[in-house]
Fold this protein.
Amino acid sequence: MAYFLELLINGALTGLMYSLAALGFVLIYKSAGVPNLAQGAVVMTAAYVVWIMVSSGVPLWIAIPAGMAVMFAFGLVVERLLLRRMVGQPVIMVVMLTLGLEILLRGLVPGLLGSTPRSLDLGIGFAPVILGDVFINRTYLVGGTIALLLVGASLLFFRTRIGTKLRAVSDDHVSSWAVGISVERAIGISWGLAGVTAVVAGVLWGSAQGVDWTLSMLLFPAVAVVILGGIDSIPGVLVGGILVGVLGSVIPGYLDSYVGGGTRDVVTSLIILLTIMVRPYGIFGREDIERI
Amino acid sequence: MNRIRKTALSAVLAAGASFGLAAPMQAEEIKFGLLQDFTAVYTFVTGEYNQGQRDYLTLINEEGGVEGHTFTAIVRDTGNQPQRGIEAYNRAKEEGAILFDFLSTPVSAAILDQANADQRVVITPAHGRGDASDGTVFPYIFPAMATYWAQAANLIDHIKQHDGGLDGKKIAIVHIDSPFGREPLPILDELAGQEGFEYRAFPYASPGNEQSAAWSEVRRYRPDHVLIWGAGGGQAVSVRTAIQNGIAPEQIYSVIWLAETDAANVGPQMTGVKRFEASASGTDHPIIQRIQEKVIEPGKGAGDAANVGTSYYNLGVATMAISVEAARLALEDGGPLTGETLKAGFERVADYDAEGLMPAVTFSEQDHQGGGAGRVSQWDGSAWVPVSDWHAAFPEIVRAEIEESAAHYGSGN
C-alpha cells in the first residue's frame, strides 16, 4: 500500500509539473486558436535564459523575474514577427510554423549556450519528505505546489480586464475586432504569458534534471495533458496533469521491471489516442458545435 | 560573454564547417572524418570529446606531424540522424578521409557495412556495436576501447575485489529503456550465475528526466549495490533520485557516461559515486600538458580552455592518440596511407597507453576492442580519483559475448 501511495503522490506532483509546461500551450490556444508545438523548446529556452543569468552571477531571485521579462518579450516578438504574418493562412501552416520554431530553438539555443547539462540549483535539497514508508520527492513537492498556485493565478487572471479581453478574443476574433479589442495585442500577450509560464516550468524542471535540450521533450507529456484536460481549459490543465502524472507513475511502477520497461510512454500515447477517440475535446474542453 | 562567444563560434564551426587544423593544405595530409552529433542526443558529450580530438591533432601538427604528414579534421554535424550521417560520410570520403568517428550508435550502425566495403576505418569508442570488437566479422570497425560489456564486467569485478565481494549480494541495474540501456544485461546474467549474486533490472523511460517510479521500486528491492546505465541529464537524475531514496553514493556505480558536468548538476551529494573510465581525467598527464603548452596557450585550441582535462575531453584525446599511433605504424611500412593500410596499422598497435592517459591497448585481427581494459574512479567532491588499476575484467566472458553476437551478425540473424 505504501508503494502504491508513493507512486500516486509522486506521480500527481510530477503531473502538476507537467501542467506548468502545458499551461503555456493552453494560454496560446485559448486566444489564438493555435496549438503551439514549440512550447517544449520555449520551456528549454526559458531555462537557459535563467541559467545564463545565474551563471553570470545574478542572484536567483532576480534572475527568475528577469527571465520572465525576457521570455514575455520573446513571446511578443514571436507573435509579431512570425504569427502575425500567418493571419489568413490555413491553421496547418501555423502549426507547421510552430514546429519549425521548435526545431530551430532546440538546435540553436544549446548550440550557442552549450549543450552539456547545466546546473540550476534552487536550494531545495535532496532529503525527501518521509511519511511512514512513503518518500515524497521534495523537488516535485515544491514544483507541484508552485504549479497549483500558477494555475490558480491564471484562473484569476482571466477574470481581470485584460483576461476578459483574451476570453473574448478566444471566443470570436471578428466580434472582438468589431467591439474595438485589439486581437493582435491579445494574442501577443498570450504568447508573452506562455513565455512567463515557461520560465517557471523550465526553472523547476531544470533544477530537477539540469538544463539541456531534453527539456524540450516536455512537449510530449504536455500535449497529453492538454488533450486529456481540454486544449482550451485551464482547470483541465490541472486535472489532466494529475491524471497523466499518476497513470505514468503507477502503471510503470508495477509493470516496468516485469515487461522490460517502456510502459510510461505507452501510457502517455494511449491517453492521447483514447481521449481523441472517446472525447476529442477532453474532459473540460469546449465542444464547438457548428452549423454545416 | 567571452565564453559564450567562444562556444557559439565552436558550434557554428561544428555545424557546417570543414576546416583544416594545419594552416595550408598539404599534399600529404591525413584526413579524419569526425562527423558527430552536435545538436541532438549526444550533445552531453560531443562538444568536449570533439574538442579533445581536434586539440590532439593540432598538437601532433604543431610537433611536426607524423613523418611529415599533418592531420586534418573534417568536422560536421549529423544530428544523430543516419541519413545525414551517410551523406556526411560520402562527402568526407570524397574529400579523402580514411578514418571516421561518428560518436553515434545509429549513425555508426547505418554506415558499418558500407565502411567495410569501402575499406575505411570507423572507430566506435564508447558507442556502436560491442560485437564489432570481432575483427574477423567487422574488419574495418574498431571499438578501440572497452565495450559496454567490458564496462559492466569491470564494475562487477570492482565490487568483487574492493567492495565486499559478490556472493549472496543483491545488485540493481537502473537503466534507460533503450538498446544501450539493456546492453549489459547478458553479461550480468552470466556473471550472476558464475559469481553467485542476484540482480534485477529497473528501466526508466527516455530521456530519463523523471525516474521516481523506478527508484521507489529499487528502494524496496534493498540492493547492496546499484549500477546506473544512462547518459546525459538522465544520469544526474539517477544519482539524485537514488540518494533521495536512501541509497548511499558509495553504493552507486555508473557506466562511462558520468562526468564533471553531472557532478556539478548533482552537487556535493555526488561525493562517493563511482564510475567506469576508459581514460584518465584531469590535466596531470604528459599529453594534456603538451596540449596546454602548444595548443591552448598559443590560442590554437578548438573550444573553451576550461574543458581541457575533463573526462570527455580526455576521452576524445585518447581516441585520436590511438588513431595517430595506428597511422604512425602504418606509415612505417612505407607506401600511401589508405583505409587498408591504416587498418593494418591499428592491428599492429601493441601496449600503447598514450603516455599513461589510458590503459595499454593491443589490437589484433581478431580483437578490435584492444583488450577491453579500464578502471573505476570515484568522485571526491572536486575530481575523479582512481580506485582501481587499469585492467580487463572477466575477459573470457566478455569475449564469448562478442563472438556469439558477431556470429549472429555474420550469419545474418
Observations:
- The domain at 2-146+281-372 of chain B is CATH 3.40.50.2300 (Rossmann fold).
- Residues 376 and 413 of chain B are 35 Å apart (CA to CA).
